[in-house]
Design brief:
Sig_transdc_resp-reg_C-effctor; phosphoprotein; 4-stranded antiparallel sheet; transcription; DNA-binding; Rossmann fold; alpha/beta
């Protein structure tokens, strides 16, 4: 998908700002949807996969921080905060809970456009080595957790190492020899056991894996949609 085809959701209760952004970004060849509050945004997220979401912080009802936390429970979609609160602690708080960037109000639309393009360029070219999304599952390598399934699961150190290596080049195969050497395993059986356990945790059908596949004669590959 090219950047100009990216689908962006704007969440802002201010009609003037929402319409301004919609017109400006549409003129720059983005597909735009809007929501007047967090509740409407979450409803749309149930049916639509967005490439980026712009969130106003000061909204009635569920505010932008609360919406960010809710979104991060299920997706890694890039988030930009629009905020009139320019204090450093507010900006840091937004970044800590999952925002990818922020821009203060009032803002220059061209600056926002550059920030959007910068984020989309990074997310389209560079895999996230700390968090991996596989359908509804989020693999949090930093904290060793798998979220989004029927229950939260843990990742052990060896599983995290394997996912870190495979996710560095999604779609590319890594030989068994390379993985064993890179991961410091002393026995081939250790790799086999780890791969089987990972499939039990991330695949709906471990015997017919969708994400963590074996490529006959070349090794293992991680497919990320």
């Amino acid at each position: 998908m090219t950047l100009s085809m990216s689908h962006i959701l704007i969440v802002d209760d201010d009609d003037k700002i929402r319409d301004l952004l919609k017109d400006f970004l549409t003129d720059n060849n983005f597909l735009i949807s809007t929501a007047v509050n967090a509740e409407e945004a979450l409803e749309k997220l149930n049916f639509i996969s967005f490439d980026l979401i712009i969130i106003d912080i000061m909204m009635p009802g569920m505010n932008g921080y609360e919406l960010t936390k809710k979104i991060r429970e299920s997706t890694l979609v890039p988030l930009i905060h629009l905020t009139a609160m320019g204090e450093t602690e507010n900006i840091i708080h937004g970044l800590e809970i999952g925002a990818d960037d922020y821009i203060g109000k009032p803002f220059e639309p061209k600056e926002l456009l550059l920030r959007i393009k910068n984020i989309l360029n990074k997310t389209s070219k560079k895999p996230n080595k700390e968090r991996i999304q596989l359908d509804s599952l989020i693999l949090d390598l930093k904290n060793g957790k798998i979220k989004g399934g029927s229950k939260d699961l843990s990742l052990n150190d060896n599983e995290i190492k394997i996912l870190s290596v495979l996710s560095s080049n999604p779609g590319e195969s890594f030989s068994r020899e390379h993985l064993i050497k890179t991961l410091g395993f002393t026995q081939e059986r250790t790799l086999d056991v780890c791969i089987n356990r990972l499939r039990q945790k991330i695949e709906k059908s471990p015997k017919i894996p969708k994400f963590l596949k074996t490529k006959r004669g070349s090794g293992y590959v991680l497919w990320i949609d």
